[in-house]
Amino acid sequence: MTTAKPADAGWVIPLADTCLGREEVDAVARVLRSGWVTAGPETERFESAFAARVGARHAIAVCNGTAALHLANIALGVGPGAEVLCPNLTFVASANATRYTGGEVVFTDVSGPEDLTVSPEDIERKITPRTRAITVVHYAGFACRMEPILGIASRHGLAIIEDCAHAPGARVEVEGALRFAGALGAVGCFSFFGNKNMTTGEGGMLTTNDDRLAELLRRYRSHGMTTMSYDRFRGHAHGYDVTVLGHNYRTDDIHSAIGLAQLQKLDEIHFRRRRVYRWYLDEFRSVEHATVPFADRDLELATPHILSVVVRRGGATIRARLDQARIQTSRHYDLINSFSTYRGCRGETPVAAGLDLITLPFGPGLTRDQVARIAGAFREV
Fold first, then answer.
1. Is the pTM of this model over 0.85?
2. Cα–Cα dist 358/231, whole Å
3. Distance between CA atoms of 304 and 276, rounded to whole angstroms?
4. CATH superfamily of 266-380
């Protein structure tokens, strides 16, 4: 399996890498030779394989993860007057998708520095008569505490949107059985962006166990049409109706073929990512004033995606030191309500607001020596 680093930008250790190789090249060539490049047989195979991988009845491929989140909100009836609870510590797409429908976002807090997933207790505190759905984010590839969240949703009659952008294949125990992220709530939403555990460059997927929702999501994906071009090409239909105001959120067979190749590698990718996470845990036991989240989790159930360290002091100094060493860092994430367009939104999140986060280089190609070098820079500070 080939691990590729991004184009050289002067970093000795870049933030992320990808696993792309001959398999993906061959998959794209196969589609190009077939003569059918829009959504067709490869997309159908990708959807079927992905549904089986995460234990869902249906998978619906789309052009990116944001489109998946938007369609989930639409299909669940979110619109003007409705509220959706959303973590403040996540990428802005999780909240934007609700805003696109005219719905209102109410922010929820994290559990704490050791667990950066959403707090079930804060979710319950912020439910109002206007609440329509709960968006949860399986942050960094570690599943939320889904058992209590599912109970809260059931008691209040609310739908759950699972943002699984970091978590293709992550599992969590619910009622004594292991279940996959994306097959627990009403709709699961996945991203295959270039830095994700599995990538198609751009791409996304919706998963659901609800037959009615699946049919609705398929129509909203493609202009509200009752049939797609490939159905008509095969002679399964000769025309179509438009039953809802849909969007052009389809994917194509080129991206789907890459996704199929990536899916074949996913177990190996996760094996290597878990190993790197363990190296970080080992190295940072001797680093004062820094916490690696999720240290008490069973890594075999997780799909580690990013490595965000919580520092108790000196964050700016540490970032500057790593930058001088040409070690790339980031921050996952700036709180959504810190952005101009979200200032004034409801939902105080004091725990998340008190975290100083540094995202460190992380990926399946990282070596033990590189992890030791990164931890060493922390010790120097």
1. yes
2. 48
3. 9
4. Aspartate Aminotransferase, domain 1 (3.90.1150.10)
Mean pLDDT of the region 37-43: 91
Domain 18-263 belongs in CATH node 3.40.630.40:
no
Going from the C-alpha of 200 to that of each of 24, 378, 381, the distances in angstroms are 9, 34, 38
Q: What is the mean pLDDT of residues 201-223?
A: 97
Instruction: Compute the distance between CA of residue 185 and CA of residue 73 in angstroms, rounded to an integer.
Output: 13
Q: What pLDDT score does 236 carry?
A: 72
Q: Please answer whether residues 225 and 201 qualify as being in contact, where contact means their C-beta atoms are separated by less than 8 angstroms.
A: no
**Domains 18-263 and 266-380 in one fold:** no
Lowest mean pLDDT among 108-117, 262-271, 317-326: 317-326
Q: What is the DSSP letter of 49?
A: H
Integer Cα distance of 117 and 141 in angstroms? 10
DSSP H stretches of helix in the chain:
22-34, 41-54, 65-75, 93-99, 120-125, 146-156, 211-221, 229-233, 253-284, 315-324, 350-353, 368-380
Cβ(131)–Cβ(104) under 8 Å?
no
> Which residues have a Cβ under 8 Å from the Cβ of 21 and sit 6 or more positions away?
1, 2, 4
Hey, what are 45's tokens? Answer: 């195979």
